[in-house]
Amino acid sequence: MSSEWPLWEVFIRGQHGLNHRHVGSLHAPDAEVAIKHARDVYTRRNEGVSIWVVKSVYIAASSPSDKGPLFEPSNDKVYRHPTFYDIPDEIGHM
Amino acid sequence: MYAQLVKSEGTSREDMSPEEIAFQGRIDRNEKIEPKEWMPEGYRKTLIRQIGQHAHSEIVGQLPEGNWITRAPTLERKQILLAKVQDEAGHGLYLYCAAETLGVSRDELLERLHSGDMKYSSIFNYPTLTWADMGAVGWLVDGAAIMNQVPLQRTSYGPYSRAMIRICKEESFHQRQGYAIMMKMANGTPAQKKMAQDALNRLWYPSLMMFGPSDKDSVHSAQSMAWKIKMNTNDELRQKFVDQTVPQAEYLGLTVPDPDLKWNEEKGGYDFSEPDWDEFYQVLKGNGPCNKERLGARVKAWEDGAWYRDAMVAHAKKKASRRPVAAE
Ligand SMILES: [Fe+2]
Ligand SMILES: [Fe+2]
C-alpha cells in the first residue's frame, strides 16, 4: 500500500457570523487540497462561507481523565450567573 | 440494514469489571462516549465493524446508481442523480472518519473491504436494470436506510452519532427524488408503469433484507442494544418500513409483490411475508447476482487511483521542501 494521506480537522464558519465550528475530518496530501476536499465533503449545501483546516496531529486536547480537575473549579461559582442575584421586579428587565 | 449481521463482542453482566460496569452506567444515563475515553475492547471492535460496514455500504452503494448517470433521461435527472451519488460518497467519508477515531485507519478499512474480510449491505449486490430502478432505489433503499439511521442519531458513540445526524439531514432528498421518479413512471405510458412495477417486484424483498435476519435468528442484538449502538431490533424496523411503504405503493397504483400482505387491525400494522433468508445468506457469502462485479469495481478504482494518490503525496513533499516556512 502506498503512503496514506494525512488526516486534517475541518472547521467551517456558517453564514451568520458565528465562530468556525468543527465539522469533521478528512484525508488530503496538503492544506490546499484539504480545503478543496472540505468544500466537497462538508459544504455541499451552502453550509459555510469560510473553511479552516489543520493537521489532526497538531490538535492538542484535554484528556478525558482530567475532566474533574479541569472543569470542577467552575462548578461552585454560582455567583458567575445572573440568576444568583435577586433584583426587585420594579427595576424591570436587567 | 447498512450494517447487517455485525458480530458483537461483549461480556455478560456477571463477568463485568468495575470499569465495564461504570461504562455501562454512562451509556444507561445517555452520556456520549468520546474517542479517547475508556471503553471495553468489545465495544470498540464491534463499532469498528459496524461503522466500517456502514461506510463501505455508502461507497459501494454508489455503484448501482452510478451505473445510470450517463443514461439518465434528462439533464435535470442526470444532475439530481449525480448529486445523490456524490452525497453517498460524502456519507462514506463521514463514517470512515468516525471509525478512524477508534484507532483504525481508512486505508486499513478499505483493504479489509477489498479482501472480502469486511462486508457491505447485501442490497447493493442486486442489479439496477432500468431507469425505474433509480426510482425504486431512492424510494425503498434510501427509505430503509433512513428507517435505520434516524434512531442511530442517538447512538452512544459521539462521532458515530454526529455522522448520523449529518447523514440524516441529507437523506430525505434521496428518498424524495426516488419517489418522484416512481410517480412519473407510474403515471406515464403503460410501458413505463410496467417498468415501475417490475422495479418494485425485484427490489421489494432485497429491501426487506436490509434490516438483517429475523429477531429470533439475530444473535448479536442484545449486547449491541445494551451498548446503544443498535437502537431497535431488526423486526421492529422492518415492520415500520412495511407500514410506511405500503400506502406509498398504493398511492402509485403499484402492487407490493406479496400475496399475503394484509392489514392487521389488532397489531396496527401489516402482516407480510418474510424474504427468502437462504437467498440473503447466499448474497452475504458472495453469491449474489453482482457481488463480483461490485467488489471488482471497487478494487479496480482503488488500484487505478494509486498513481494519483502517490503523485499528490510526492507533490506535497516537493512543495513543502521548497517553502520550509509554509510547510508545516
Ligand atoms: Fe447515504
Ligand atoms: Fe442516501
Automatic annotation (TrEMBL), chain A:
Keyword field contains NADP: no
NCBIfam families, per the entry: PA_CoA_Oxy2
Domain of life: Bacteria
Enzyme Commission number(s): 1.14.13.149
Keyword Oxidoreductase carried by entry: yes
Keywords assigned: Oxidoreductase
Stretch forming the signal peptide: none
Protein name: 1,2-phenylacetyl-CoA epoxidase subunit B
Pfam families, per the entry: PaaB
Name of the top EC class for this enzyme: oxidoreductase
TM stretches of this protein: none
Gene Ontology molecular function: phenylacetyl-CoA 1,2-epoxidase activity
Gene3D superfamilies linked to this entry: Phenylacetic acid degradation B (3.10.20.520)
From TrEMBL, chain B:
Superkingdom in the source lineage: Bacteria
Residues annotated as transmembrane: none
Recorded GO CC terms: cytosol
Signal peptide location: none
EC nos: 1.14.13.149
Gene3D superfamilies: 1.20.1260.10
GO biological process, one term: phenylacetate catabolic process
Alphabetic keyword roster: Oxidoreductase
GO terms of molecular function: phenylacetyl-CoA 1,2-epoxidase activity
Pfam families referenced in this protein's UniProt entry, alphabetically: PaaA_PaaC (PF05138)
NCBIfam families with a match to the protein in the record: PA_CoA_Oxy1 (TIGR02156)
Protein name: 1,2-phenylacetyl-CoA epoxidase subunit A
Organism for this UniProt entry: Paracoccus aurantiacus
Originating gene: paaA
